[in-house]
Specification:
153 residues, Immunoglobulin-like, 3-stranded antiparallel beta sheet, 2 helices
């Protein structure tokens, strides 16, 4: 009988702790700002000037559910020893943590592309930034309208 009481007590503790954790990171409590994304990009790419182009970002314009948003990208590149995409970084301007993902490629990669599922807290811009082996930096962005938030509503 003592084990049952101890189990119930542990369960109550974890339920209470989970509730407190959810309250601490509730949507709207901490939101990234576009300036945070700009600072993250500057830090990651050493202040190199990014130009529009070469990145195809495929996202839905309207996400019915922010918990699961499909994201596909492809960067136009010959992917040869002398000219290839080294890094692609994805950012969300409205998420508490603006960095979504980092991808690293080599000349042996057939193409600089990937597919993932992301979580979005609210309607916001998704920013993709790619750096080539020649030091060129490209960017693009797309707004995704979220009808049901990815962080609980």
């Amino acid at each position: 009988m003592g084990d049952l009481k101890a189990a119930r007590t542990r369960r109550e503790f974890f339920v209470t702790a989970a509730g407190a954790a959810a309250f601490a990171v509730a949507p709207g409590a901490v939101q990234a700002e576009p300036a945070d994304v700009a600072a993250a990009i500057e830090k990651a790419f050493g202040g190199k000037k990014a130009v529009e182009g070469k990145i195809k970002l495929d996202l839905p314009s309207i996400a019915e559910n922010g918990l699961v948003v499909p994201l596909n990208f492809e960067v136009e590149s010959p992917m040869t020893e002398g000219d290839y995409v080294k890094t692609v970084r994805l950012y969300a301007e409205g998420n508490p943590q603006p960095t979504l993902a980092d991808y690293h490629f080599t000349p042996m990669s057939p193409k600089a592309a990937a597919q993932i599922r992301i979580r979005l807290a609210k309607t916001q811009n998704i920013v993709a930034v790619a750096e080539t082996s020649k030091g060129e930096v490209y960017t693009t962005k797309k707004e995704v309208k979220v009808t049901i938030g990815g962080c609980g509503g």
